[in-house]
Specification:
mainly alpha; globular
Length: 61
């Protein structure tokens, strides 16, 4: 996996995580729709090859 594809994946993950955090902090229809929209964008990017999802990764958070 190249640095560029790793960064694209990381950026997509960060956006999705922020949307989920927002929904968990303030559950509502608007936040739920935002999470679903980001999940669809993530899935579409993965299907089209715009991002490459690593087989495994380490999280140090």
């Amino acid at each position: 996996m190249s640095k560029v594809t790793r960064y694209a994946w990381r950026d997509q993950q960060a956006i999705l995580n922020e949307r989920m955090k927002g929904f968990l902090q303030n559950p509502g229809h608007e936040q739920l729709e935002a999470v679903i929209t980001e999940m669809r964008a993530y899935a579409d990017a993965a299907k089209s090859g715009a991002i490459e999802i690593p087989e495994r990764f380490n999280s140090y958070s």
